[in-house]
Task: structure prediction
Amino acid sequence: MRIAEIFQSIQGEGFLTGEPSVFVRTSGCPLRCRFCDTPYAAWKPEGEHLSVKEIAARTASFGLSHVVLTGGEPMIWKELVPLTEELKRLGRHLTIETSGIRYLPVVCDLMSISPKLSNSTPCADQAPRWARHHERLRHAPEVVRRLVQEYPYQIKFVVDAPEDCLEVEQYLRQFPEINRQRVLLMPQGTDRLSLAAKAQWLLPYCQQHGLHYCPRVHIELFGNVRGK
Ligand code: SF4
Result:
């Protein structure tokens, strides 16, 4: 499978925020989100092809218990199944970060699902083909339903404007099985100032509606720096 990078950092988003972790970033994603913060793993995928054994060995060299399999979209790689089995055999805690558009029978301790709202669609004027493709793929309810049923999960929405919160509520109405206590709303942004500005209205919204506000701690600590 193609790997853009393997690095050590702390988990910056979600219920495991602050956990020292090894990040394995797979390269390639069928979506092309307007605000994608890892273009080198989606819009312009790069990286080397590594075997399951090579990835497991590089991951083990950091000596951390928590491993985050992220992307790009890791669930497009069928080798993810034996990789998760091998990492679990080595005693690792596994988080998979996915947009929820593909299913694989992986081993996973926390399925972190980030369904894409309409705010993520690329600009139709600049990338008409990708805009159509994105709209066709981004909502895969049968996949999300299966992931939620089979794994411990969190659902993380990227929110860019106040009206996106209404779309989140519409989305959640389709999934009565999703526990609101497992839902996080995260501001869209890759710098401290824009995140702080959006927190002004998103944090109170979360408090009033029984949802979790999700800071992007790695951006606050390191900025939008690759490998952090
Ligand atoms: S799903 Fe994630 S990796 Fe893929 S384009 Fe969107 S933000 Fe980028």
Observations:
- The chain has one domain: 2-180.
- The first helix runs from residue 52 to 60.
- The chain has a mean pLDDT of 96.
